[in-house]
Amino acid sequence: MAYEQSPSLRTYEQGLPSTPPPDRSARRKWLWVIISVLAVATVTLAVITFARSTAAAILVGTGTVTGKVVDESNRPIVAEIFVLHTNIEAKSNPDGTFEIRGVPAGQQSVVVAYQGAGREIVVDVVAGAQVNMGTVQLTATAIPMTEP
Amino acid sequence: MSKRSSDTAQAFIEYMLIFGLVAAVVSLSLVATGVSARDVYCTVAKSLASNPVSCAHYFADDFSNLSAWTIVNGNWRNENGQLCGGGREGRIFVPLSERNYVINVRMALLQQGNGYGIYFRATNFDRVDGYTFQYDPGYSPGAFLFRKWVRGNELSPFARNNAPGYTWHNVSRQIRIEVNGNTFTAYVDGQRVLTGSDNTYTYGGVGFRTWDATQVCFDDLTVDPLP
Q1: Cα–Cα dist A46/A53, whole Å
Q2: Same domain, A100 and A69
Q3: pLDDT digits (tens, 9 = 90+) for B38-83
Q4: Nearest by CB to A82, which of B14, B25, B150?
Q5: What value does the mean pLDDT of chain A take?
Q6: Is B150 within 8 Å of A147 when comparing Cβ atoms?
Q7: SS3 assignment, position B18
Q8: Is the pLDDT of residue B33 over 80?
Q9: A102-107 — which CB contacts under 8 Å span 24+ positions?
Q10: Are B40 and A57 in contact (CB under 8 A)?
């Protein structure tokens, strides 16, 4: 038994006890097993939570998404473009083209919207590369917002 | 410090460490699974109680006034203790932070027009993100829909059930929407009419929507934990 784990002299002030003092080292060993298991579970869960976050997505790398937006008559339009699960927002140029940089790599849902109605398109973004969504045709089916 | 008190202090630290780690594991598990602590409490309380336990509503309104609501646009008003709206695009919301819940509207009466929507998991009310269940006679040939909203823009329905010949107008309907994880189920008068799924939004409030020439009144809204 290590010196640190030996019983205190006070234990024997009144003479030798009828039963030996409990061995605390075994209980402590179990405590540390429990602590280790809980620590591993905590780290695992923290990693899972972080992996789902936007910060983790950015660490994976970012790419660029390009394309062109036209209306039902194939005329270019200034549309709103959003990347879901991020704060990325952009607008297409008057000629309908757009280029969005800094899109997290991986499968991303891009929403292209015009006059209150939109389309969702899933794009595979590759880190350090440019992905062309092609021409997105929007049909205005929604009723434009009316101010209160 | 004596050896005995040193042992006691060390044991105390170890127990506190275990307590802290258990708390961390529990809270991270709730975050990872998307379950709220309140839902867990309600589930445990219901399973332990010998008598049925009713966990408090997340939100309830009999529409005696509209003080809890944020009117973004439209002609929303209190009429005879009911919430009525219509005549143009209208949106009204109440914020919630819950993820999963059941919406019950005891009375939804569409008097005229192309339909109404009930928002759920709605946030950023001025440019709303969220979902609607739409009771939509205007969506030919008349349909129940789930739509997603992104920064105030409505996307094409991600779930649709055509209901030609349905009596859409001037019948008081009970609407129930179960919002559970990525799966949403709508009931009209106790009958399941639509199921859809989407992973975009995980929490948020509820609201109502009108458009076109719709005239509609609602009464007795409750938002409760899942059964």
Answers
A1: 11
A2: yes
A3: 677 777 776 776 655 556 789 999 999 999 999 999 999 999 999 9
A4: B150
A5: 84
A6: no
A7: helix
A8: no
A9: A102/A62, A102/A64, A103/A62, A103/A63, A103/A64, A103/A65, A104/A54, A104/A57, A104/A58, A104/A60, A104/A61, A104/A62, A105/A57, A105/A60, A105/A61, A105/A62, A105/A63, A106/A57, A106/A60
A10: no
Q: Which residues numbered 98-137 in B keep a CB inside 8 Å of some CB on A?
A: none
- What pLDDT score does A140 carry? 62
With an 8 Å Cβ cutoff, are A24 and B212 in contact?
Answer: no
For residues A120 and B148, the answer to whether their CB atoms sit within 8 Å is: yes
CB B45 within 8 A of CB B53: yes
CB-nearest to B153 from A10, A32, A116 is A116
* Cβ separation A118–B155 shorter than 8 A: yes
Q: Which domain holds residue A41?
A: 21-52
Does the distance separating the beta carbons of B154 and A80 come in below 8 Å? no
Candidates B7, B73, B150; nearest CB to A147:
B73
Pair (A74, A130) in one structural domain: yes
Same domain? For A66 and A37 the reply is no
Q: What ipTM does the predicted assembly reach?
A: 0.74
| Residue positions counted in chain A | 148
Closest-CA residue in chain A for B76?
Answer: A148
Stretch A20-43: mean pLDDT = 84
Same domain assignment for residues A66 and A133: yes
In a shared domain, residues A132 and A70: yes
Domain count, chain A: 2
pLDDT band at A147 (very low <50, low <70, confident <90, very high): very low
CATH superfamily, region B59-224: Exo-inulinase; domain 1 (2.60.120.560)
Mark whether A87 and A65 lie in a shared domain: yes
Pair A45, A95 in one domain: no
Query: Model pTM greater than 0.90?
Result: no
Average pLDDT over residues B126-140: 96
Q: Does residue A146 have a pLDDT over 60? A: no
Choose the mutation target among B66, B150, B182, B201 for the interface with A, i.e. most A CBs under 10 Å: B150
